[in-house]
Write a structure and sequence with these properties.
alpha/beta; Rossmann fold; seven-stranded parallel sheet; 12 helices; 12 strands; elongated; binds NADP nicotinamide-adenine-dinucleotide phosphate
Length: 332
């Protein structure tokens, strides 16, 4: 057999751009068992290191691979990213033209992101940040009942009804909220919701909502989806929560709507620029709870993502449909 022929039958290599310390020997054994005979390269800089020849052999990639490094892998057939949002596609339209499957980690952290969103909503409604400030000063501060609100019976609008939004909608319904939704394909079922519209229905639905939650991905279509006009349409005294992607929100317009008192409060985990610039007005607002994009953090995240990768590897080898497949044109 000549050199060319022997290379043609060699199974492609696997590259995992992740911290090797986070990978167990059992997990590596499982990769070898599912996809035998493949070279496996693991390392945080595995997408940058190695020779051109090594890169040319990579058929499967996982982890955090920089877009330009990804596009420099000529034999790539599948990339499992270790995170949910594929907003990098907005700045890398070439990826959609390349013939590789892209899968995300959507759903892995949906439960904790929803818990985070509920945390903001409950805390803002029950004035817990104010209670905590007073507690630190040892002040028995008891605002009048009209400064509080009962969430049950109120209306929550959830924008984006994917892994995060659909879970929030179901839990919201269980809290006796009336749940409205906005999604790209409003014809899909959405348990827990009373009514769901498409992106063009956002402005019409906003005035009905006491709580508005963005669980939207950042795509070519969603930049500043929550515009100045959207904030103007929100009910006076409404609460805005953002746990999807920051670039979906016009942050200056949000800050203005909060400063004017039009919105009563906000819970924000994601921002247009991260870290949030120190001069952002949002930092100093008492009616805002900010968290530095930690909504997806929990101890089992890497293990669960590896389990998803292993399941998808098994499917890939068997020629079965992959879970969490992203439509690269659509961007999510
Ligand atoms: N805060 C964090 O740490 C954290 C953690 C995980 C994820 N995220 C972010 O949250 C986003 C959502 O996560 P997910 O796992 O729920 O994603 P997902 O399952 O892909 O769901 C995305 C949802 O957005 C909707 N959508 C897409 N384009 C839209 C548009 N133009 N107008 C209205 N709706 C649109 C989709 O509608 P259809 O269902 O009708 O297609 C879908 O319901 C991710 O993209 C990620 O960026 C943040």
């Amino acid at each position: 057999m000549d050199d060319h022929a022997s290379r043609a039958v060699e199974p492609g290599a696997i590259l995992l751009a992740i911290d090797p310390a986070a990978v167990t020997s059992d997990q590596i054994a499982r990769i070898e068992e599912i996809a035998p005979g493949r070279e496996i390269r693991i390392g945080l800089d595995a997408d940058r290191s190695g020779s051109d020849e090594q890169r040319a052999r990579i058929e499967i990639a996982g982890g955090w691979v920089a877009p330009d490094h990804l596009l420099a892998l000529p034999a790539l057939r599948w990339y499992q990213q270790w995170y949910a949002g594929a907003e990098w596609l907005v700045d890398c339209p070439e990826a959609a033209l390349r013939d590789f499957a892209l899968t995300s980690a959507s759903g892995i952290s949906a439960a904790v992101v929803v818990e985070q969103a509920l945390g903001y909503i409950l805390a803002l409604h029950r004035r817990l940040p104010q209670a905590w400030s007073a507690q630190r000063e040892r002040v028995w501060h008891k605002p009048p009942p009209e400064r509080f609100a009962e969430l049950a019976g109120k209306t929550m609008l959830v924008a984006g009804l994917g892994a995060i939004g659909s879970r929030l909608a179901r839990i919201g319904a269980a809290l006796d909220l009336r749940v409205l939704g906005v999604r790209r394909r409003p014809e899909l079922p959405a348990p827990g919701t009373e009514r769901v519209g498409g992106p063009g229905d956002l402005l019409a639905l906003l005035p009905e909502a006491d709580v508005v939650v963005s669980a939207m991905p950042y795509t070519r279509e969603t930049r500043r989806f929550f515009s100045a006009e959207a904030f103007a349409r929100m009910k006076p005294g409404a609460i805005f929560v953002s746990v999807g992607r920051g670039k979906v929100v016009d942050e200056d317009a949000l800050a203005a709507a909060l400063a004017s008192g039009h919105l009563a409060g906000a819970g924000l985990d994601v921002f247009e620029r991260e870290p949030l610039p120190v001069d952002s007005a949002l930092w100093a607002m008492d009616q805002v709870i900010l968290t530095p994009h930690w909504g997806a953090a929990f101890p089992g995240r890497l293990e669960r993502t590896m389990a998803l990768f292993l399941d998808n590897l098994r499917r890939y080898v068997a020629g079965q449909p992959l879970r969490n497949l992203i439509d690269k044109q659509r961007g999510y």
